[in-house]
Amino acid sequence: MEIGIVGLPNVGKSTLFNAITRAGAECANYPFCTIEPNVGVVPVPDERLDFLAKMENPEKITPAVIKFVDIAGLVRGASKGEGLGNKFLSHIREVDAIAHVVRCFEDPNVVHVDGKVDPVRDIETINLELIFADMETVEKRIDRTKKQAKSGEKQYLEELALLERIKEDLEKGIPVRAMELKEEEIQKVKQYFLLTSKPVIYVANISEEDLLSKKEGELLKKVKEYALKEGAEVIPVCAKIEAELAELEGEEKKELLGEYGLEESGLDRLIRASYRLLGLITFFTAGPKEVRAWTIKEGTKAPQAAGKIHSDFERGFIRAEVISFEDLEKCKSQNEAKEKGLIRIEGKDYIMKDGDVVYFRFNV
Ligand code: GDP
């Protein structure tokens, strides 16, 4: 699961991405930490993991992680091959969701590619490029389906009608994710790999002054209004401060956060929001060797969740012994939870819940 960071030049993408890679470097014992320069893997902050680690005092603590990919190079005209053009668009095709960074800070030393800071225009510029690219994909598909539809087969006629509808909406400037589609149509549309069908979060890069004053600036307000129409979330961050925060740990980090009156960093909020956007949840395994957070898709059943740990666990799945984090939190130890009868036995049809602490029983 990957989130692609996009945005026009000079909006603060690299600054934010640097904060991401530094935050990732902190969890150096994580196996995925060494990857290409444009990929950053960060731990997902989770107080529940910290609690379980205190309870078990394990040899190793392993957080869930999320992967960000820095997709630089989008400029006006990319869909027509300007800048890195198509290469850029193919990178977007590969990610599962988009974090779209927009500039909401004024700074005379940082030029804006279009002369003036205007985040809504910036969002529209990029969204339009993605819409153009999708239109091209859809038009090609229409040509092909038209030929197939000559046979008169219902399946092709229906597909053609759907494609025509999507094209009309794209022409109106509506991204696929905001279109009114039925469940089966959504499934169908997935096969077209359209760029504007990917879920998006807008990351509003605000100024230090706005961060300090806590007042919602005009530019941020406009981004929020825009995002609301799409049902998208907006995460305000100040990339410059995030870069500083990522250098710090523990008390020092808390101190700097305190100076800005913040509980947690914008990056942590972005990580959490991205996790939600991807429809991901966490379950835990907790023992003296390792306390670990595992990532699964919402709706995953117990055997498949067990398969995340090891394929043998899925193949030989017998049952899962499950306790919700909330129940375990009230106990001093897993033994106490057992004595109180709080641990449930669940079978192969059990749908995992966020925060489940699990012990899988399996045949080898
Ligand atoms: P990118 O082209 O989108 O990757 O943008 P960069 O991260 O390289 O940032 C462009 C310029 O804006 C750099 O000079 C940054 O130092 C500056 N910048 C980034 N974020 C902020 C911010 O939050 N406040 C201010 N004042 N400058 C920023």
TrEMBL record:
HAMAP family: YchF_OLA1_ATPase (MF_00944). It comes from Thermovenabulum gondwanense. ATPase that binds to both the 70S ribosome and the 50S ribosomal subunit in a nucleotide-independent manner. Residues 135-173 form a coiled coil. Keywords: ATP-binding, Coiled coil, Magnesium, Metal-binding, Nucleotide-binding. GO terms for cellular component: cytoplasm. InterPro entries: ATPase_YchF/OLA1 (IPR004396), Beta-grasp_dom_sf (IPR012675), G_OBG (IPR031167), GTP-bd (IPR006073), P-loop_NTPase (IPR027417), TGS (IPR004095), TGS-like (IPR012676), TGS-like_dom_sf (IPR023192). Belongs to the TRAFAC class OBG-HflX-like GTPase superfamily. OBG GTPase family. YchF/OLA1 subfamily. GO terms for molecular function: ATP binding; ATP hydrolysis activity; GTP binding; metal ion binding; ribosomal large subunit binding. Gene3D superfamilies: 3.10.20.30, P-loop containing nucleotide triphosphate hydrolases, TGS-like domain. Residues 1-257 form the OBG-type G domain. Its cofactor is Mg(2+). ATP binds at N10, V11, G12, K13, S14, T15. This is Ribosome-binding ATPase YchF. Residues 279-362 form the TGS domain.
